[in-house]
Amino acid sequence: MSIRAIILGAAAGGGLPQWNCGCTNCNLARAGTIPSLSQSSVAVSLDGTSWALLNASPDLREQFARVPQLAPTDLRVSPLRSVLVTNGDIDHVAGLLTLREKQPFDLFATAEIQAALSGNPMMAAVDRQLVPRRTISLETPFELLPGLEARLFPVPGKVPLYLEGETVETDLEGEQTVGVELAAGATRMLYIPGCARITPALAERIDGADMLFFDGTLWQDDEMIREGLGRKTGKRMGHISMSGADGSIAGLAGLEIGARVFVHMNNTNPVLRPDAGERAEAEAAGWIIARDGMELTA
Fold it and tell me: For the chain, what is the total number of helices (H) and then of strands (E)?
């Protein structure tokens, strides 16, 4: 059985172009030289009729408007059946407020992520009578859509920026950052938009997947510092780099993966430029650089 995936948004928080950024990529996107990208979200389906969201981007309204498969089928009738969020980051949960228009769907997340959502009074606008909060334990299979089994697993990461304290652990493994394993029959798809490092356990889980969507935030760890756009490294933000001996391209190189796709790319990442050497290097290693609207089937 096949799993269909539509990349609604391929960029990290802020999108491309970011509203207040004049970096090379943002200016190229404003000029139409490279594609603009909205913020991170993926829609999945088995039958093309019922759909689930993996993360709810702040750009969700525009993303839905661009995808005919997600258009309403009648008055206040949507093909959306469920939403699953993999962490509490603003670029993954703010879109829930767009979905407050009296539309029923199930909202899946771990207990820790649900607590972060419940702790924000604005999220009360998403009516619990219509949108039940389904709390999922790690490694416990559940039905995301009829016939589509999902399982959440811990991925090294950190708490959302708005929950950081004086001391920040950037490679925590628990309920605050998770990956998603989807299975339909013998088909297996993994979605991991945020990851601080590749552990042996994570590599073992990824091995043999028919399709992998993986954190592509930065090309190199000090990218934002080099660009003069921030003081944090990728590691400090809880994201592994694509390149380098400890990067994701090298770390996943020896695994059997049907299709490997980078998602959640920051506006500074050179792979967003089709003529960049870094993009050629990633593609030569077998990686697909996601773009908005791309549809893939595992």
Answer: 8, 14
For residue 261, what are the β-bridge partners?
Answer: 213, 288
pLDDT in tens, 251-281: 999 999 999 999 999 999 999 999 999 999 9
* Host domain of residue 197: 4-293
Distances (CA, A) of 139 to 61, 63, 154: 31, 30, 9
The answer to whether 131 and 56 have CB atoms below 8 angstroms apart is no
Backbone angles phi, psi at 188, to 5 degrees: -135, 125
User: Is residue 298 in some structural domain?
Assistant: no
User: Amino acid identity of 62?
Assistant: E
Phi, psi of 78 (to 5 degrees): -115, 150
pLDDT tens, position by position, 133-168: 999 999 999 999 999 999 999 998 876 767 667 776
Cα torsion 65, 71, 76, 80 to 10°: value is -100
The CATH number of the domain holding residue 44 is 3.60.15.10
User: pTM for this one?
Assistant: 0.94
Question: What's the structural domain count of the chain?
Answer: 1
Burial of 159 (0-12, 13-18, 19+ CB in 10 A): buried
Which tokens hold the place of 157? 């990461």
Give the integer Cα–Cα distance in Å for 131 and 55. 15
